[in-house]
Structures are given as C-alpha cells and as structure tokens.
Amino acid sequence: MKILEAKNYHEMSSIAAKIIIEKVQSKPDAKLGLATGGTPIGLYEELIQDYRSNRTSYERVCTYNLDEYVGINPEDSNSYRYFMEEHLFAHINVPESQIHIPDGTAEDLEAECERYDVELNRGEGVDIQILGIGSNGHIGFNEPGTSFSSHTHIVDLTETTRKANARFFQRLEEVPTQAITMGIASILKAKEILLLVSGINKAEVMKKLLTTDEVDEQLPASALKNHHNVTIIADEEALSLLREKKFQYK
Ligand code: F6R
C-alpha cells in the first residue's frame, strides 16, 4: 500500500481528483467505483470544478456505487442515489444509463445483490475504486466480521455506523438498519483503489490499520493489504497517531 500524506481535507481531495481526472482523460470509457459519506464530497467538488473549466467528459464513463440503504427510495434525500445526484451526477455529463447503484427498495433483495454483481463483473473490472473508511474499519458497509470472500450482499448496520451516519438524518431512529453493499471480494476486484481518510476521528483506525501486518476480518480495511494497487490518501489529522510520518507501507 502506498501512503500519500496530505496537509488537510482540501489537499486530500485535490490529490484524489487529479488521479481520477487523469484516468478519465487517458481512458474516456473508464469504470469508476464511487463512495458516499462526508469524505469524498471535496473530491466530487473538484471533479465538478474541473468539468466546468476543462470540460473533462464523463460521457463514456460508467459509475458503480459501493452501497445503498435498504428501504429508502432513490428520490428520498437520505438515499445514496440522491446523495450522488446532488454531489456529482447532476453537475457532470455522465449519462443516467451508465450510473449503477444498488436498489435498496427492490422487492427481492437477494436477487438485487446478484443483479448488481453481474453488472459489476460485466466486461473489464472497475478501473479506480474510491473508498472511505468507518471508524470501526468498515469499507463499503462491510462491518467487522464480514467475510473477505463476500460479494454484493445485505448487511445489518452496527450501532456505531448508524450513529456515525445519523448526522445526515433528522433522528437516529430514521437511520436504516440494513444496507446493500459491494462485498470485500467485489471491492478487491478493482484494478486500483484509492482510500481517502480525513480527520482526527479516523486517527485510531489508521493506527490500527498501519501499525501491523495483520489481515483480519475484524478490521475489514485490512483486506486492502491483499491488493496490489492501493493508495491511501490521508491527511495529517488522520495520520496523527502514527509516529513514523511519510512512510511507505510494504
Ligand atoms: C460510503 C461507504 C462508507 C463510508 C464510511 C466513511 O459509500 O461505503 O464505507 O466511506 O462510512 O464515511 P465518512 O466519509 O462519512 O466518514
């Protein structure tokens, strides 16, 4: 894993944006794996800015989101579909038909997971997967204990995750208890992975992740150590509990 230390959230977002923009410019039909949450918002703002000033085109790009809440309509402002529309899709020229997000309102959720895996595996794999990390080490909604061989599946969200995400809802009770998420194995199929990490509340998990060689299903993000092309872009606060700064892991 390569680690790029950014000064702050803004620099983390700019470094990530540069990598994505270069990919889309060199491969106009790139497949991008996208995340929601607070972490990638700055990255998406930079992509929009670049689209407006440099006209980087997303006309042939396909996007695949990591996850979606179960039981929330795509039109609902709390859905991840809505989040992506608001923070990225409405502002760039990616065609609707090339956007992929699991449907958390599907009648048969198991069939929806299978359908999503088929979409993901169509043609070449995802070129770059963007990830954030939960303070408990989750990636996507793969909570501690999730099998590293998991594909798209339904998860019960932990209380930690529901509380962390309650900031996007009016009340904690409104946060769904389940989600559909790409599994660890589905995520690791991407050719390149960018893990973005910002803020002091991620310092503990970064220390856990980066101070041992251990690959353990109790720390889902440790699965990334099994991938050949992972770059962690983390800011100073997120790396503040690590004594060795600006180091290369492995
Ligand atoms: C979001 C996702 C989650 C978040 C993680 C961090 O699609 O899959 O794993 O990346 O919960 O969330 P933030 O960025 O809000 O700290």
Could you describe the 3D structure shown?
The chain has 250 residues and is an alpha/beta fold. Helices cover 29% and strands 17% of the residues. The protein contains 7 helices and 10 strands. It has helices spanning 9-26, 41-54, 80-87, 109-121, 159-165, 184-188, 203-210; strands at residues 2-6, 31-34, 62-65, 67-69, 99-100, 128-131, 153-156, 178-181, 192-197, 230-235. The longest helix is centred in the first third of the chain and has 18 residues, at 9-26. The model has no long low-confidence stretch (mean pLDDT 95). Fructose -6-phosphate binds at residues 35-39, 66-67, 132-134, 138-141. Fructose -6-phosphate (F6R) binds at residues 35-39, 66-67, 132-134, 138-141.
Tally of individual domains = 1
Q: Please give the share of residues in helix.
A: 25-40%
The shape, in one word, is globular
The overall strand count is: 10
N-to-C series of helices and strands? EHEHEEHEHEEHEHEHE
In a nutshell, what does this entry contain?
By secondary structure, the protein is α/β, with parallel strands linked by helices. It is built from 7 helices and 10 strands.
